[in-house]
Specification:
alpha+beta, disordered N terminus, 12% strand, 5 strands, globular
Amino acid sequence: MKLLWIVLLLALPSLPSCTKVEKAEKVESKKVVAEKYDRSTWEHWIDEDKDCQDLRAEILIATSQTPVTYRKAKGCVVATGRWYGEYTGLIYDSASKVDIDHVVPLKHAHDHGGFKWSLEQKRKFANDQFNLLAVQSTANRQKSAQGPHEWMPPLKAYGCAYLERWAAIKKLYKLKVGKEEKKFIREYNKGCAKP
């Protein structure tokens, strides 16, 4: 019988020591797994003052170089105005050609630490006018959720101002800066005038 127990014990795979298991658990507990990005959890285009004009309309009104017109007499949805596209340097007269861009995109914020935020923090970020800019819709859609190391405004003259604003927003919200992103910004800033 003793011989049978010895044979069975030798046949078992070696088990990790308690200290190895404890170390593995500590490493596992340090991993932060981001939940999948869900744009609906980042409530945006709110109508804070309940006047029927959401934040998109209010930014279009505030940044138009001429008085705006509306689609309907009620004055909720902007139809025309005159906007300067920071990313392209072009002028746009139709609101349908203008997007309100999150300078630091919502998905980018999510992927760089925002996934841990409460719904209220996400809402604040999504509606922070410092992070919102009226731009040409095509440029905004080309940018998508990319960081500056992946996409920069076509208008080169706006590059330094764009990166300055990008960095200020990420710092304000304590968002992580990726390795490639950091390297690109450092290199690009060498060509920017110092204040």
